[in-house]
Design a protein that fits this description.
With 204 residues, the chain is mostly beta strands. It is built from 6 helices and 11 strands. The chain has helices spanning 38-41, 43-47, 62-65, 68-72, 93-96, 121-128; strands at residues 2-10, 13-16, 22-30, 32-37, 55-60, 78-81, 99-107, 111-118, 133-144, 153-166, 187-189. The protein is globular, with a radius of gyration of 17 Å.
């Protein structure tokens, strides 16, 4: 089953070109485990016996995050302000896109790093003020986690659709910035580190 996801990170360093465009450097996708409410994962979590309010652990293996086809899909992505309700396509990009991710990307041990360019003046202002975080809009298949993983499910076939500028969540608040597009993680962590609830209680 394919599920839409929206992960959030800081915009990162911003540089302005002489034309007024903004170029950001941002770590946008990582390996490790993320926590979601079962209700956001739909039938796959329900069929596994989870109740809607249960917190479910979803693993992003390095083999999937850094897979050739997945990395190919992260280049030339449209940049949007907030997540659109539908995929960005040739039919609607002119109405939704305010910039794009370039051809180049870099990989670190846990992260993919990209340099999105924001070309719209209003969006550039938002990136400096109201929308200081980035959220990747992507889809992935959800399958039961392989034996030995501290997770309930794992992602396969990650495919990116757009990069959204989103409002920065206030400290201590569980911001649900992906609601219009798809599932947004409660928290993420690396295997071996016990995930904590908002109240600081261990969820494992």
């Amino acid at each position: 089953m394919n599920v839409k996801f929206a992960d959030r990170v800081a915009v990162g360093e911003l540089k302005e070109t002489r034309e007024g465009y903004l170029v950001a450097t941002a770590r946008v996708a990582r390996t490790g485990v993320q926590l979601y409410y079962a209700s956001e994962l739909g039938d796959v979590a329900r069929d596994a016996g989870f109740k809607p309010g249960d917190v479910v652990r979803v693993y992003r293996h390095a083999d999937e995050v850094f897979a050739k086809d997945s990395l190919a899909s992260i280049t030339r992505l449209p940049v949007t302000v907030d997540h659109p309700a539908e995929e960005v396509t040739a039919a609607n990009w002119q109405q939704l896109a305010v910039g794009e991710v370039g051809d180049a990307y870099a990989t670190e041990p846990e992260w993919i790093v990209v340099n999105p360019m924001i070309k719209d003046a209003g969006a550039a202002k938002a990136a400096r003020t109201t929308h200081q975080e980035i959220s990747m809009g992507y889809s992935a298949a959800i399958v039961p986690a392989r034996d030995g993983l501290e997770a309930d499910f794992e992602q396969r076939g990650i495919r990116y659709n757009h990069l959204a500028l989103v409002p920065k969540g206030r400290a201590g608040e569980m911001a649900r910035i992906g609601d219009s597009w798809g599932a947004s993680p409660v928290q993420d962590f690396q295997p071996g580190i016990s995930p904590k609830s908002k109240e600081g209680l261990c969820l494992t």
